[in-house]
Amino acid sequence: MRATHITSLKGPTAIEVVEVDEPTVGAESVVIDVHVAGVTFPEVLQSRGEYHLRRTLPFIPGTEVAGIVRSAPLDSGLTAGQRVAAFPGVGGYAETVAAPLTAVLPLPDNVSFHAGAALPMNYLTMHFGLARRAQLTPGDTVLVHGAAGGVGTAAVQLAAALDARVIAVVSEPGKVDTAKAAGADEVVLADAYEDTVRELTGNCGVDIVVDPVGADRVHGSLRSLAREGRLLVIGSTGGDVAQIKIDSLMRNNLSVLGVGWGAFWEEQPSYLQEQWAALLPLLRTGKLQPVLGRRFPLAQASQALLELDRRRAQGKVLLDVR
User: Fold this and answer.
1) If we measure between CA atoms, which residue out of 67, 120, 125, 146 comes closest to residue 311?
2) What is the pLDDT of residues 153-192, one digit of tens each?
């Protein structure tokens, strides 16, 4: 089968397209013929050896896919020919992948393969962050950094679907329309977001901040929170990991919450299916419709990763595998 390999840790441009054997199938594995693969920031980090999970070279990257079941364990509830999304964790940049049964998610008829491949990493991460970690309730005000990217658009759309008011922060005017398309109530530019947020909230602040950017955004995020506000730390695409002074949290009883979705469900695999059951009604009614960005053929996987690496992505970047 065709696949991509990370053969050296020289960054996205070193990724190669190769011919390899199809994956070995375990007793509890589902074999999926991949139509579309999602592109995620961990794969950028993997290409440089900077991700916390290290794999032996060479390996096939790709954490999330959408496609058609070729085979599944008996009594799994899945059948050959069924449309699914999946989170194999690795191996998704290939024509065929094997995924654990617990990480295979049946797609509603109204959800395309492209939308399906955009769901597992970003939407399940944000469902974990907003619903479980931040305990979002209808009427909360949510501030989302990096709101034009894959994680950001997922956060905006899911928060809006859960009846929150959403203020989106983008780095440049050209990304405003993408954040609006995701469902943001207001969109503000990053270089002046603190003052604007104070104006939009009557100087009260927001209840939740979603921050996949980190770096210099963290301290402004804390200043933008209302009493008992919650800062969700999703990642640090902006570079350096910020240092937080503990006393800055006490004045308004603020909470800084790590969002380690993968670490959580690895110890509780059934949680993925619980999440999917919660999202299915929103998918079937069209309340969740991933904002899709650029699409690349499998042979241009390195270019797809550069979209994220150079912070050019607007919406979810995807690979067309078939």
Assistant:
1) 146
2) 999 999 999 999 999 999 999 999 999 999 999 999 999 8
Strand 104-106 with 96-100, pairing: unpaired
